[in-house]
Amino acid sequence: MAETRDEEITTKDSLPQQENDFAEDPSAKKARRTVFLIGLLVLAGVLLYAVFRNNQVCTSYDTVTEFARSKACSEHYDVMNGDLIRYSSDGISLTDPSGSVVWNRTYGLSNPVTAVCRPYITVADQGSSNVYVFNTYGQVGAFTASVPIQTVTVTDDGITGAILSDAANNYVNLYSIKGGLLVNIKASLENTGYPVAMALSPSSERMAVSYLAMADSKAVSRVVFYDFSGNEDGKVTGTEVLDGICPKISFVSNSRAVVFCEYGARIYDVSGGISLVQTVDFKEEARSVFCGSSKFGFIFRNTDGQGKYRLEVFDTSGSSVQTVYFDLDYTNIYATDDEILIYNSSAALVYRMGGKLKFSGEFEDQVYMMLPAKELGTYWIVKDDSVSVIQIE
To answer: By the 8 A CB rule, do 133 and 162 touch?
Structure first.
């Protein structure tokens, strides 16, 4: 007979306890905890410093670069990607923050007006017909319109929009970079009104035009929305009739537009037809308006004693973001997607677009213009005889 043997089956619970050869040394465990705590303290310090810097109001600045400026009274300024655009009736140039001229172009224009949408700049002769188109590398197009130009706009793919008028007719036209006529809309004073403002979406597929007209013996604005996404000739997707003058329209995205009125703004979704997203109304007329890609706002004279002026900031859904008060008697404002610059010849306020005050200080010399430079916290300062780049402390 074969021998049988009962084998003992041992469960995990009945296994003899083995000494763990890899047991952590108590001193090593303590060191690891110490390193972890130090890391937490460093992270907390970084977060606290970030909060402190975000809430700190700077009052002084350092001059980073300074170079001479011609005193031509007809010289004007703007910025593109943080580089300085200088233009006059004689020509235009682009200068980087080190003071190096990137490019320049001479021309002869009586009354130059510009539009900037990175990476393109359009310069037109207001009241005449010449148009030049530039990008970050220099001139890329030039053409002559058939009717005198009143105002221009440009998109980020180089499409130029223009309102044109002469003694007999008014037009809203779109041009390619080289000057090819893409869209030609003849404005009828009887049916639409006189075009006073226009805006193009970043993709150039949608357009909104504000026409001033009369209805029942009062001034109204007919805001007409156009869609070119499926048809080169375009189609009218909707018309809104609003009381008073609507002097400014901004597309904050390809599908959303803000129409500024005398006493507020209307926000429209234009992704299909048009639909009113939100109405922002005020009892008083704004002294200044501004618009970025995610926020827009108004500055009012204030009468409740909290400050001379009231700054109201809204998001692109029409919700109020911040209300702040200030006393600076400003002469100019400049808004970016991130900041609002409010200044006069001797002092400035810089607010983050959410409404927090970032800078409040005085200039060392009389200032003609303040514009954002390339790096965050740096700004172009145009003075009588020089141009400088400053960095706030």
So the answer is: no
- The percent of residues above 90 in pLDDT, for the chain, comes to 76
Q: 199: burial class by Cβ within 10 Å (0-12, 13-18, 19+)?
A: buried
Where do we find the tokens 């005050």?
A: 357
Q: Spell out the long-range contacts of 105-111 with Cβ–Cβ below 8 A and sequence spacing 24 or more.
A: 105/132, 105/134, 105/138, 105/139, 107/132
Residues 359, 352 contacting (CB under 8 angstroms):
no
**Residue holding tokens 């990175």?**
118
Q: How many helices (H) and strands (E) does the chain have?
A: 1, 32
- The reported pTM is 0.83
Angle in degrees, CA 327, 307, 381, rounded to 5:
25
Task: Examine the pLDDT at 1 and tell me if it is beyond 50.
Answer: no
E strand or H helix that includes residue 342? strand 339-343
The bridge status of strand 218-227 relative to strand 206-215 is: antiparallel
**Distance separating alpha carbons of residues 257 and 330, to the nearest angstrom:** 28
Give CB contacts under 8 A, 24+ apart, made by 108-114. Answer: 112/76, 112/87, 112/88, 113/149, 113/151, 113/152, 114/76, 114/78, 114/85, 114/87, 114/152
The sign of the CA dihedral 227, 230, 231, 237 is: negative
Question: First-to-last CA distance in the chain?
Answer: 99
Both structure tokens of 212:
């001033």
Q: 181-232: per-residue pLDDT in tens? A: 999 999 988 888 999 999 999 999 999 999 999 998 899 999 999 999 876 6
CA torsion angle for 44, 50, 54, 56 (degrees, to 10)? 80
- The Cα 84–Cα 75 span in angstroms is 12
